[in-house]
Structure prediction request, 741 residues.
Amino acid sequence: MKKSLMIGVAAFAVLLLAGCGQNATPAPQPTTPVEQPSGNKTDPSTTEPTLKKQLVTVYYSDSDLMELQKEEQEISFAEDIEKYKKTLALLGKPVKADAHFPLWKDFQYHSLTFADGTLTIDADSKNQYNLGSSGEGMAVDSLKETFFQFPEVKQIVILEDGKKTESLMGHVDISQPLTRDK
Amino acid sequence: MKRRFYPLLLALLLVLLLIPGWAAAASSATEETVSLMIGGQAVTPDVPPLIKSGRTLVPVRVIAEGLGADVAWNEATRTAVITKGSQQLSLTLDSRTAQLNGKQVKLDTAPVISQKRMLLPLRFVGESLGITVGWDSSSRTVIANETPQVTLNGRAPEKAIKLYQVSDTMYVAADAVAEQVGQKGFAWSRPERGMTIDSQLVLPLKQVEDELGGSIDWNQKKNLVEIERLNHLTGVEQDGDRVHINMKLPVQANAFVLTGPHRIVLDLPQTALTDDLVEELKQKEQAASTGESEDRQQAASADDEDEQSAEDSDSYNDEQQAAASVPEEEPLIASLRYSQYSASPETVRVVIELNQKSAYNLAYTKDGIEVKLTPKPKKTGYLIVVDAGHGGKDPGTLGVAGNHEKDYNLAVANKLIALLKQYPEFQVVPVRTTDVFYELSERVAIANEMDADLFLSIHANAFPKPTTGGTETFYYNANSKTFAQVVHKYLQGATQFPDRGVKASGFYVIKNTKMPAVLTETGFLSNPQENALLTSSEFQDKIAKALAAAIREYYQSYQ
Prediction:
């Protein structure tokens, strides 16, 4: 017992150090000019992160899957990326739980990133949605309405496990980025 | 017995543990050892090379002697002027600005003084002087040598091919060679015999020659590497719905389709016609110009495969007329042609002209390429594509009884197909008749490629709230609205579920199909009352009949 534990620890240490070794040996690459990071935009400041508060409008289905319903909810965040993540989380949690049905309940995703006007959501392919075309159509509409309230978001890209996909639930075409028109 | 083994294993692991740790510690220090291989010779300068900001710096003398350059030192300006052939480079100590043939250039790393020697960035100096410089990270060696002239089948290669000399062996960027002889992505059988230089696999010339075929000669005196690897087309043969393209060496064809008439074109890179074939083409051309020929289409060159060629389209019109007068069973392949499409670089073009649109598949054999043709079914009537939504790995929505939407969709689709087949004027094409998965794009492709007249996708809905229910019909493109209204009228009439109406929504299969296309959501499997009906065979019959009646009405009233 003890010995196998020790071996385990040693093996773990080997893995750990092997990893360190890789990091510690920057292979000199005389080929391409070394990219000098021109100073991170977000300087690691020692000050307390100040939380911004914002009212956001979040969209849900009505109880009959006929029309989108909106709610205003408040979120607080330090960095903009949290604003999107918290908003996405709210899409699964209406305040009026009796009248409003969330279309993104328990939605799991690998990552959410924002760059150059594009919000990219990398969805987990293991999500179980159980919505037909009506529900998927409305889910995508609710996502668009909700995120396009932020003027900086110009388009939304939905991936599945890091890859482009035709559709999340087998109906709505998400092979192209979702845009503000239409 | 076994127990005694453990301490040994543990010791081994600890040793293993020490090595990377030690290596990491050593390499994080500034003095990393770097070897130099210059002109094939290992060089050990009196002052060891330095690595600074990822660049290797070497003493001036290494550059002067090893690379055969003249170096003059100007003490006043602290500038080294390096001359090799017509290239002149001036570098100033501690300055990242250099002069190359009188023009200012930027360096990543400035020359420095180490142990009273001026050290210069080797790659920058080398490449400025036309020297090949590479970095082998596994042996931490900088390799520099004169850049040999390279010819590929007698011409300068389109993309530069790098060569590195180690002792008496010349190594070549293997993938660059493979790609340029028409073997992109070649799987090397013994890559371990090579090295990785600047993240590229390099292999000894001999090995590349052995694996790719052809010949590679290195003339060390002339500093010339000649790669001769020209493939020859020896013939093109038809064998039923297959075409054999016989070649002497393997190359990857660049295949594409031209329409009007339907042609499959294969361009064979770095390939020439054999003398026999050249002779054959000549004779056929002569025959064609003297007598009016039936085998004109059989023979002759495929040079005229560009669409703008007037002669080309003329001959096709003739053929089309001929085909129209003989409406009998046509052979799948109308003609086979080949030609030396380009002489520089040599490219052979093979054209398979078809009487019927076909899918094709290329298989590379030891004798060349086998093209397998799969003719697409011809349109014989008013063509309706019936799409049972989801299927296979995609179950669709989940019913309250644990039932899956894909099964409902398939049951109704199969019933509908049987009903529609009773009408001889209808040609019914199902997307699926079993529990299999099709991508949405495949469903669309079936309808678009067959030029279908109608597309109907059958689905069933779901929502977390069990009381939600109803029948809903979707369309997207303007040409589909009427069809959607007709379908909805019949469908909702049959279900008597709440009427959720006809709506426009950009669902993949109705957005990307060209013909009138509709997606139906018959009812909600999440609604216990509706689900009980939707899962009953009698109710499914009723739905199928309603959909068939809708298609009949649309066909009779709006076509």
Notes: Chain B touches chain A through 65 residues (CB under 8 Å). DSSP finds 13 helices and 35 strands in chain B.
